[in-house]
Amino acid sequence: MDRPNHITPAGYAVLRREYEQLFAIERPKLVETISWAAGNGDRSENGDYIYGRKRLREIDRRLGWLSRRMKAAKVVDPAAAPDRSRIFFGATARIVDEDDHERELTLVGDDEADAGKGLVGWNAPLARALRGAAVGDVRRVTLPAGEREYEVLSVSYPDP
């Protein structure tokens, strides 16, 4: 990875829980099922064996990805932000576009992004445009739907 994987403590905990769930619970159960299915004879038409091996490959790929993401993770606690008047990692901002549509969004790690919940990935175009902005600043961002201007109405951070 050429850049650090910024992530909030809560986001890191989610990655860790998924890794532990797959590694300690799902994978051992699946290995047991595959062993049982392999002992039943002909593997070429054994659905439990074939599906089990396929699922095991999926789990191992996901475990590898999670492991790499956690290794590259740089946990940043937004509550410890030194400058709380500007938008940086972990900030929650209310913005308004030129059509007077207000949105509230929080800048989080790329692995935590969920647009439906207002969580915008740190490296998303909107997040990059808003970085360092203060209340009253207007920022122009190029989105897939075209260029938009956003004005920052408020900036807040979690309490320490």
Automatic annotation (TrEMBL):
<dbReference type="InterPro" id="IPR006358">
    <property type="entry name" value="Tscrpt_elong_fac_GreB"/>
</dbReference>
<dbReference type="InterPro" id="IPR028624">
    <property type="entry name" value="Tscrpt_elong_fac_GreA/B"/>
</dbReference>
<dbReference type="InterPro" id="IPR036805">
    <property type="entry name" value="Tscrpt_elong_fac_GreA/B_N_sf"/>
</dbReference>
<keyword id="KW-0238">DNA-binding</keyword>
<comment type="function">
    <text>Necessary for efficient RNA polymerase transcription elongation past template-encoded arresting sites. The arresting sites in DNA have the property of trapping a certain fraction of elongating RNA polymerases that pass through, resulting in locked ternary complexes. Cleavage of the nascent transcript by cleavage factors such as GreA or GreB allows the resumption of elongation from the new 3'terminus. GreB releases sequences of up to 9 nucleotides in length.</text>
</comment>
<dbReference type="GO" id="GO:0006354">
    <property type="term" value="P:DNA-templated transcription elongation"/>
</dbReference>
<keyword id="KW-0805">Transcription regulation</keyword>
<comment type="similarity">
    <text>Belongs to the GreA/GreB family. GreB subfamily.</text>
</comment>
<dbReference type="Pfam" id="PF03449">
    <property type="entry name" value="GreA_GreB_N"/>
</dbReference>
<dbReference type="InterPro" id="IPR036953">
    <property type="entry name" value="GreA/GreB_C_sf"/>
</dbReference>
<dbReference type="GO" id="GO:0032784">
    <property type="term" value="P:regulation of DNA-templated transcription elongation"/>
</dbReference>
<dbReference type="InterPro" id="IPR001437">
    <property type="entry name" value="Tscrpt_elong_fac_GreA/B_C"/>
</dbReference>
<feature type="domain" description="Transcription elongation factor GreA/GreB C-terminal">
    <location>
        <begin position="85"/>
        <end position="157"/>
    </location>
</feature>
<keyword id="KW-0648">Protein biosynthesis</keyword>
<protein>
    <recommendedName>
        <fullName>Transcription elongation factor GreB</fullName>
    </recommendedName>
</protein>
<dbReference type="GO" id="GO:0003746">
    <property type="term" value="F:translation elongation factor activity"/>
</dbReference>
<dbReference type="Pfam" id="PF01272">
    <property type="entry name" value="GreA_GreB"/>
</dbReference>
<feature type="domain" description="Transcription elongation factor GreA/GreB N-terminal">
    <location>
        <begin position="6"/>
        <end position="75"/>
    </location>
</feature>
<dbReference type="GO" id="GO:0003677">
    <property type="term" value="F:DNA binding"/>
</dbReference>
<dbReference type="GO" id="GO:0070063">
    <property type="term" value="F:RNA polymerase binding"/>
</dbReference>
<keyword id="KW-0804">Transcription</keyword>
<dbReference type="InterPro" id="IPR022691">
    <property type="entry name" value="Tscrpt_elong_fac_GreA/B_N"/>
</dbReference>
<dbReference type="InterPro" id="IPR023459">
    <property type="entry name" value="Tscrpt_elong_fac_GreA/B_fam"/>
</dbReference>
<keyword id="KW-0251">Elongation factor</keyword>
